[in-house]
């Protein structure tokens, strides 16, 4: 008689590529390696697959890749595409509901909600999943972004509105457990939503799934600073360009690389024009495929996250994975992710002069940069194991509480 397979822990990520997908994938691998059965429900043609038989990536949602679709420059012309994708996303939620109810998972963990209808649907799904007929699953969220923000408008400020706030609060109150990536984000969640569950801090692990090849030692690199990830207003690219203009005046051989897709809330042409005016700036927007990541990180001496607003950034952990130090602004939990003077340098958000000083210091000191990068790499090495253990323990706590009631 064969043993019945345990019910899976299900991670939900609508996009089959990009930072949130990569986070969910690597967390799924860590949970599977710790003895859990895991499924990652996502969109078509995911950029990563796992050989672990206990971790299944299920590309069942009718969504899309971040860089897919036509290159539409006129803002008004993007409206029909957004409307089409909104309808497609709504259908993806319907598919998700069917998949979850038929899977009867042990637990379901979302990563974020963006639009008002998403938390509203989440509440309905959560209530159904908690019923014994559907397995009595624990439901939770890994809150990368605790406040709702637009992908198309100003990403540096949160969205608001009576219905939106009510929908998000209701979804938070339906969660059995919540996870965040730092203590400041935990404070924001508790202050904004007053959830009826534990809010547990978990670490962000290394980006080992992207480190397919060895890279050049930091001390052997040219004086290159790297901005990696989607170009959006909240990430402070204007502040970085102001800073690099100062750096280049003091260190003419310095170079800056802006690598990543252009978001809808930023004028990519204005950014590239400013980059040309400053000089020694490589700025060509476009999604970076997984196989291209090692070469881009390997050419950098320092990675910069000059964000003016953020909760956390996987770019910091990506840099550490490749042994690169990070210069970051002190906003959200970024300042706690970088140990100032040990794994990188922390500066005030929006201060281009401080940012320039920190970047120049590491570009001029390859040996110091290498030492900091090595310390960062050691810091993230076992972080996924810690995250998996805390998540598993929290789910077990929910199950134990229900068994007592």
Question: Please, what is the CATH homologous superfamily of the largest domain?
Answer: Glycogen Phosphorylase B
Name of the CATH architecture of the largest domain: 3-Layer(aba) Sandwich
- CATH class of the largest domain reads Alpha Beta
Poorly predicted regions are none
Helical/strand content category: alpha/beta
Radius of gyration: 21 Å
Total count of strands:
13
- Output the CATH topology of the largest domain: Rossmann fold
Strand content: 5-15%
Helix segment tally: 13
* Number of discrete domains: 2
Q: H/E element string? A: EHEEHEHEHEHEEHEHEHEHEHEHHH
Largest sheet: 7 strands, parallel
| Overall helicity | 40-55%
Shape: globular
Question: Overview of this structure, please?
Answer:
The chain is α/β, with parallel strands linked by helices. It folds into two domains: 9-205 and 383-404, Glycogen Phosphorylase B (Rossmann fold, 3-Layer(aba) Sandwich); 208-380, Glycogen Phosphorylase B (Rossmann fold), CATH 3.40.50.2000. The chain has 13 helices and 13 strands. The strands form two sheets. It has a seven-stranded parallel beta sheet with strand order 3-2-1-4-5-6-7, with helices on both faces. Helix 7 (268-278) links the parallel strand 9 (255-259) and strand 10 (281-283). Helix 1 (19-33) packs across helix 13, helix 2 runs parallel beside helix 3 (117-130) and helix 9 packs across helix 12. The chain is globular. The two termini are 33 Å apart. The mean pLDDT is 93.
């Amino acid at each position: 008689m064969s043993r019945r397979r345990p019910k899976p822990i299900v991670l939900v990520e609508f996009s089959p590529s990009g930072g949130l997908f990569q986070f969910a994938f690597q967390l799924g691998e860590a949970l599977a390696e710790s003895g859990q059965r895991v499924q990652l429900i996502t969109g078509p043609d995911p950029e990563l697959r796992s050989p672990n038989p206990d971790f299944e990536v299920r590309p069942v949602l009718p969504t899309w890749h971040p860089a897919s679709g036509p290159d539409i420059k006129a803002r008004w012309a993007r409206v029909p595409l957004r409307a089409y994708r909104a309808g497609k996303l709504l259908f993806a939620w319907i598919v998700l509901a069917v998949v979850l109810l038929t899977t009867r998972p042990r637990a379901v963990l979302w990563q974020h909600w963006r639009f008002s209808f998403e938390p509203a649907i989440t509440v309905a799904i959560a209530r159904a999943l908690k019923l014994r007929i559907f397995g009595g699953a624990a439901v939770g969220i890994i809150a990368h972004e605790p406040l709702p923000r637009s992908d198309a408008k100003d990403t540096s400020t949160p969205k608001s509105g009576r219905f939106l706030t009510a929908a998000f609060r209701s979804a938070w109150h339906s969660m059995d457990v919540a996870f965040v990536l730092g203590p400041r984000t935990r404070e924001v969640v508790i202050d904004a939503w007053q959830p009826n569950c534990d809010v547990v801090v978990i670490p962000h692990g290394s980006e080992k799934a992207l480190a397919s090849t060895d890279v050049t030692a930091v001390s052997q690199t040219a004086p290159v600073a790297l901005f990696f990830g989607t170009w959006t207003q909240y990430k402070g690219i204007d502040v970085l360009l102001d800073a690099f203009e100062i750096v280049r005046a003091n260190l003419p051989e310095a170079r800056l690389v802006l690598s990543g897709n252009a978001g809808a809330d930023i004028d990519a042409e204005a950014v590239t024009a400013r980059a040309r005016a400053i000089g020694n700036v490589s700025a060509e927007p476009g999604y970076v495929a997984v196989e291209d990541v090692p070469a881009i990180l390997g050419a950098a001496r320092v990675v910069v996250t000059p964000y003016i607003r953020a909760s956390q950034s996987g770019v910091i952990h990506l840099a550490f994975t490749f042994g690169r130090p990070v210069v970051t602004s002190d906003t959200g939990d970024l300042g706690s992710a970088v140990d100032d003077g040990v794994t990188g340098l922390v500066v005030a958000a929006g201060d281009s002069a401080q940012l320039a000083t920190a970047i120049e210091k590491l570009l001029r000191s390859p040996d110091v940069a290498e030492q900091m990068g090595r310390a960062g790499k050691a810091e993230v090495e076992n972080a996924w194991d810690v995250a998996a253990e805390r998540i598993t323990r929290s789910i077990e706590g929910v199950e134990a509480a229900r068994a007592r009631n």
